[in-house]
Amino acid sequence: KMVKNVDSAAEQFLDANPQFAKQYYDVNFRPKVISDLLDNSRKTALDVSKFHDLTTVEESEVLFDLVRDIQDNLQMEKSVFNLMRHLSFMLRADRMSLFMYRQRNGVAELATRLFNVSKDAALDDCLVPPDSEIVYPLDMGIVGHVASTKKMVNVPVTSFYSEFVDELTEYKTKNALAVPIMNGKDVVAVMMAVNKLDGPHFTAKDEETLNKYLNFANLILRVFHLSYLHNCETRRGQVLLWSASKVFEELTDIERQFHKALYTVRAFLNCDRYSVGLLDMTKTKEFFDLWPILMGEVPPYDGPKTPDGREIIFYKLIDYILHGKEDIKVIPTPTPDHWALISGLPSYVAETGLICNIMNAAEDEFFQFQKEPLDDSGWTIKNVLSMPIVNKKEEIVGVATFYNRKDGKPFDEMDETLMESLTQFLGWSVLNTDTYDRMNKLENRKDIFQDMVMYHIKCRKDEIQNVLNTRERWGKEPDECEEEELQEILVKSEVLPNTKKSEILEFHFCDFDHSELDLVKCGIKMYYELKVVDKFHIPREVGAPFVFTAVCLSVSTIAQKRLTGFRTKRCGDVEKKDEYTGDLKRYYTDLECMAMVTAGFCHDIDHRGTNNLYQMKSGNPLAKLHGSSILERHHLDIGKTLLRDESLNIYQNLNRRQHDLVIHLMDIAIIATDLALYFKSRTMFQKIVDQSKTYENWNDWTKYMMLETTRKETAMMMTACDLSAIAKPWEIQSKVALSVAAEFWEQGDLERTVLEQNPIPMMDRNKAADLPKLQCGFIDFVCAFVYKEFSRFHVEITPMLDRLLNNRKEWNALKEVHEAKMAEIEAAKKAKEEETAGAKQASAAQSQSKTCTLS
Q: Domain PDEase: where (predicted)?
């Protein structure tokens, strides 16, 4: 009784002195109470078994429960789930859900993060895994409307609710209350409560309650969003920083540049795996690659193309594996059925230049990704982000594809931004390698042209007087004379050789019996025989210097190199006219004939006396400038350089179409002298010959061939001319073979002394006696096919085949003589060895008998 009286008296005192009571409580009790309320181990003292209105104390418990979630290691899903669980109780809502706002492929959408949260729910049951998300576009349903308008919506009846979710979950939505969660002016998420349990719909009081507690959701999601943005920007900065450091370490090669950068930043890309497909940058095919297509041997490419018109061909694929044990796989020339390409996504990105973000690869209807595990680890493709790598010229140089975000969620807008920054940087960095490559080519061109200046000069005015003696005749230079005056010197004064006497129309023509000046005159005569000088208005003061320069450049090179191979090559060049003797001119226009004869003059200009392989082995600038057919492309460049000179340009009066045609034919004719291309095109030529036999009327076949440009280009005309010395009479051919062998042996000497390598037998001077055997092999494996097929194609060529076969017999006879001598030498050597061995045995036996005497 006394205690009760004391308590009553204390209460009366505190009621009478509220200021003192507050001060006393703040000093003695408040710190402990607040500490207990904020203790993370404390459980909420709130009975949620039955719905009821919250008392002030219970509401305080809810508030402190929410604060406890925020104060220590904020976990967005857990904190928002706790809030929604309390709101479900306070709103009497059957369920609540959270939809996160995001953008993929530039399109905004809402995806379920927490679904079917009730007052008694558990977090694990409500947290939606990435592969089970329900995604709403912003133009669908209540949540889409809320995200678009950024306003709360209270729907008494769900007349415009999207029913597909109800059908999916077998649930009936009757009413709903939804509110946007904002970060400034940007929507972060939408929270929605459905089905009021103690009434027909949510009330204004429910809206007030939701708004009151929405501040917690705003705070939680804002902190989460800012933290995520900070993390993304940090990763983006690291990606650009590290990739920049590696990009500028490697300037020589785009593949190594990309590889170094992408491997260095792998830790910041937040994915399990990524691959980079590098695209072929070739815009125009080589003519020899077009031939099979134009002739119908290979179907034309009908696949996708890049925006700038290139065929989509991935020449290399680099696969970076980050899950499990890290690994890198480099796949050169990947096949279309490779797992990274078979879906068609990289080709689609290369074709459209679009960024593609696919959240559920297994269920995607447009791209067919491999659904089975890719390796023994069981790793499968879940979500994919693919984007183009674009250079400064806005050309797509590759496609980067990222697989499976590490946290299992789909790639979002921030991932797109980060990856796009990386690919843009890599694309722009291609400028470094392009610039480096251009500088290298310019440097190589400079070296080549400096080399040319040392070797060659354009023919001097006094040299041309040996052909056009205008000073003696007219007292002026050729460029000062009228065409009639020059014509009179060339034709009427018989400066040019007589066709029959010089035999330039005969198969057996050979330049061994002609001086260099005579060869120049023969070359000029060929243009007159073709009747192209007047038809295409070749200025006489230009035509003569062009032929003189072309011939003299070649002679100058050979003279300085102390080689005799020029005569062989020249024989091949002048043999161009022999083809017309064979009546093959019937298939060609006069313009085409002029182009091919000019190509014959130019096809060995500045020949170095060594082959293409030597250029590569010795690191010659030519090999660095031209990737294939090295010397042939060099001869072509020199020829074009001469033709660009106004005083040597025999094409100067052609129109644009004619000029383009002759340059095109020169390209083909000169590059075709590379025997490496001969082996590629011989089957096509054989089919042309077979086709010719299907025509009964020869004139019909001639008309057909005249119109078939591609077939004429593949007809091996230049190859037959370049090899024509093998079909000369034996007395000429044998001399030519020795000349060529001398050239080869000099290259062999260079390989042995300069490159410190042993030459192949054909180049080895020490094996000169094997020349007949080598010639037989050359005829059998290279030359015989050309002239056999040409003889089938055109019987007038048969004399060349007959001489070829005769020369084969002559070489074979020499080979047999050599082999017989070698056999005799070997037999004598063996006999001598046996004699020596017998003498040794006899000596040993005699020595043994002397030591075994009887006493």
A: 482-818
